[in-house]
Amino acid sequence: MADTATPNVIRRADYAPPAFLIDTVALEFDLVPERTVVRNTMRVRRNPDASHAANLELMGEQLEFVSAVIDGAPFANAHAHEHGLTLDNVPDDFELTLTSICNPAENTTLSGLYVSGGNFFTQCEAEGFRRITYFLDRPDVMATFTVTLRASKADYPVLLSNGNLLEEGDLPDGRHFARWEDPFRKPSYLFALVAGKLVALEERVKSGSGKEKLLQVWVEPHDLDKTRHAMDSLINSIRWDEARFGLELDLDRFMIVAVSDFNMGAMENKGLNIFNTKYVLANPETATDTDFANIEAVVGHEYFHNWTGNRVTCRDWFQLSLKEGLTVFRDQEFSADMAGGATDEAARATKRIEDVRVLRQMQFAEDAGPMAHPVRPESYVEINNFYTMTVYEKGSEVVRMYQTQFGRDGFRKGMDLYFKRHDGQAVTCDDFRHALADANGRDLAQFERWYSQAGTPRVSVRTKYDAAQQRYSVTLTQGYGDGAPAARETQKGPLLIPFAIGLIGKDGADLPLQLEGEAKASGCTTRVLDFTQTEQTFTFVNVAEEPLPSLLRNFSAPVIVEYDYSADQLAFLLAHDSDPFNRWEAGQRLATRELLTLAGRAATGVPLQLDDSVVAAFARVLTDESLSPSFRELALMLPSEAYLAEQMAESNPAAVHAARQFVRKRLANALRKDWLAVYEKHRTPGAYEATPEASGHRALKNLALSYLAELDDPAEAVRLASAQYDAANNMTDRSAALSALLNAAAANGGSVEAQQALDDFYRRFEKEPLVIDKWFALQATQRGSAQRPVIEIVRKLMAHPAFNLKNPNRARSLIFSFCAANPAQFHAEDGSGYAFWADQVIALDAINPQVAARLARSLELWRRFTPTLRDGMRAALEKVASQVKSRDVREIVEKALA
Ligand code: B3K
Ligand code: ZN
């Protein structure tokens, strides 16, 4: 994969198989924080399927080379350099032993081998293994690994690596060892080791075929009381993958280890998943319902990778969505099944709505900016920058579209064929598509464009009813609108869009559907149209009355639908659509339209007003006890400020904030009695229950509280919130109460109640880092006011003794929360937010480029903002560009400024 024209750009088109293969790897570690010696013995041979190369080029970074031995004899022709090790004129098939030294104690990048809280951990995906030893560190080189760990027994009593434990024992000088073997071939990015003072919650379960499996969740001793939920989630994941996909756990032992310094959520290393503590540790006092749900999803996600990612892996990193899109789809389906089984459509819809909301807010925005790329990117500078919403979330939507077309059974057939063909291989997105196509006897050539075209497709819809003929025609047109410039380059032709549609009659019930040419109505009231041309008309016959179309039901494709609904029609859909997703969608469209109109007015100083009919539509949802509480909560939550700002011709965060606040206040004051009634009715007294039902009640109740905190006279809300804060037996209620107190006090520059609660919260949870993260985040995302801008609070908190820039969770809780989740305050006209951003990106760049690059992305849409803000953002980006050191951040800011 050599560079071509532009230096440092890696291109998909340049893929070439490796000149050498490595069949076995035996690693020996002498673990010492400042100086770990790694001995790496590999069986190497020429790749019969690659062109000849005389020299073996191994990747290596930040390593001190000690020695190379080939077939037992010292090898003099080995040259270490900045990017690795070159061995000149090597034999065709040989044993190579390399010795090198690394410094885990000083490794603040959290990539490779590093120390956190006095324990050793690794993170190798994507290219961290080369920071541990010299290697062909690319996913199409797969080997079996044995690993010997040696360390001080007192300091590192637990020694873990992938696979099965072969032996362990004592060594002289207070040291001990453990030897592990992973029987499955794997790429280096799936290697892991852990060493330290840890304890485990253990369970033994029988897998589908009756084999006993040891499951362990390893944590620091004081966290053992927060492991039950992760263990339950793991057991549920194992059961689910057996039931839904016939996939069984293939190792005798499966371990999860929690670490508090971690760049992302978790990592699927074979048999030894390493997790950010945030996605493992939970009990009712410290974790919210959202945390519980996230843990279930991430535990599932990493476990499901064992088949989709590990048994079948990626040929190269351009294929990342092969494992990530597919595994996100699997974890979404898992969570939906856990919430609603296969049949409770309303409960499943809750999960679907949440996922689509994330996609639209984050992935659509990515598509509209300088980082827009296809699900299978064509090029990158730093692969870690491509673990994106597009690869993950849009990739998941692409996988979901196979299931939408073929049904669950057809999708399962495709998966079975995929494993039958590719188990043990490193393959491509095309291989996956071919398996799905072949198993279902369908030509999916056109579907390939979903992998190669960047940008969010737009589908505009025109409808016509012919009363005399009882025909209803739906004309769909697809395109990309203006799109981002980066996206336009890759657009080649129309997509195959599975477009789900229903027709609703005047009474609110679905009409039977019969397409022209069909003998009779199909019996289903939702049809998935095969929309394959730039413009295509679908005609329904025997349509007795003029229907209202319910478009893109359950969000059957990741597109933007343009259709001219009237406000009354949206209110009607919100009240009647049988598709729960579209019911929610109608409310969001209604709210978005009103909010954008209001934001336009706010931007030009025109007084704001909201039509009573909109208030009435929301009131109906609020008071409709036949709807599930979790659905009501989602339907009553207004689109986020970031999403709204992105919909404006020129993003104006202040105007969006003013508009959204105006509507929240209006809904709060107009429906005060209803909010209060809902607040009372949905309390969940007694012991905390982590069920979807109970969490739905809490969500709705706490939404009510947040609206009540908007009342012109918030005294009653403050009383309720204070009482809820004091009485809470769970973090969901306690943090919601604290948030309500902070926001109720914002207009007055703070309140005694809010400050007391904040102080209490800190004291109560001082020893729980994940809760202290919440304490920082709540303050960073709170509403501000002219006399009390949040930037000042954030700056003060940066100096708090509990703040630590080196810990990614802590950096995210304060800095990212402010820069990415408090748009109205971050985008202050005076540019103070941008100056802060630049300082933090530069500071993080020197510590941890991956985390810095994530933060850097929060200004990438700068061109879409109002002129003053645009200038401020450009200046900040230029400042970072002039000082940046890492390839990671450089790629982001250069693309943004290009
Ligand atoms: N595969 C990892 C992500 C690795 C990110 C490297 N920068 C976690 C996951 O998606 O499951
Ligand atoms: Zn993943």
- Fraction of residues in β-strands: 15-25%
- Major beta sheet, strand line-up: 6-5-9-3-2-12-15-14
Structural class: alpha+beta
**Average pLDDT rating:** 97
Helices, by number, come to 27
Radius of gyration: 28 Å
Q: How helix-rich are the residues, as a percent range? A: 40-55%
Bound molecules: (3S)-3,7-diaminoheptanoic acid, zinc ion
Number of extended strands: 31
Oligomer: single chain
Can you describe this structure in just a few lines?
This protein has 898 residues and is α+β, with helices and mostly antiparallel strands. Helix content is 41%, strand content 20%. The protein is built from 27 helices and 31 strands.
Task: Walk me through what this model shows.
- The chain is an alpha+beta fold.
- It contains 27 helices and 31 strands.
- The strands form eight sheets. An eight-stranded mixed β-sheet has the order 6-5-9-3-2-12-15-14, with no helix packed on it.
- Residues 1-6 have low confidence and may be disordered.
- Bound molecules: (3S)-3,7-diaminoheptanoic acid and zinc ion (ZN).
- Residues 125-126, 264, 266-268, 301-302, 305, 324, 384, 387 line the site of (3S)-3,7-diaminoheptanoic acid.
Q: Which keywords apply here?
A:
alpha+beta; eight-stranded mixed sheet; five-stranded mixed sheet; globular; binds zinc ion
Topology of this protein?
Blueprint: E1 10-11, E2 20-30, E3 36-46, E4 56-59, E5 64-70, E6 73-74, E7 78-81, E8 84-87, E9 93-102, E10 112-116, E11 119-123, E12 142-152, E13 158-161, E14 164-170, E15 175-187, E16 193-196, E17 199-206, E18 212-219, H1 228-245, E19 253-259, E20 266-267, E21 272-276, H2 289-304, E22 313-314, H3 320-340, H4 345-367, E23 379-380, H5 389-422, E24 426-427, H6 429-439, H7 449-452, E25 458-466, E26 471-479, H8 485-488, E27 497-504, E28 527-531, E29 535-540, E30 548-551, E31 560-562, H9 567-576, H10 580-604, H11 612-623, H12 629-636, H13 641-647, H14 653-670, H15 672-681, H16 692-708, H17 715-727, H18 731-746, H19 752-764, H20 769-780, H21 790-798, H22 808-821, H23 823-826, H24 832-847, H25 849-856, H26 867-883, H27 887-897
Parallel strand pairs: 2-12, 18-19, 19-21, 22-24, 25-31
Antiparallel strand pairs: 1-23, 2-3, 3-9, 4-8, 5-6, 5-9, 7-8, 10-11, 11-16, 12-15, 13-16, 14-15, 17-18, 20-21, 25-26, 26-29, 27-28, 27-30
Helix pairs in contact: 1-2, 2-3, 3-4, 3-5, 4-5, 5-6, 9-10, 9-11, 10-12, 10-14, 12-16, 13-14, 15-16, 16-18, 17-18, 18-19, 20-22, 24-25, 24-26, 25-27, 26-27
Bound molecules: (3S)-3,7-diaminoheptanoic acid and zinc ion.
Zinc ion (ZN) is lined by residues 301, 305, 324, 327.
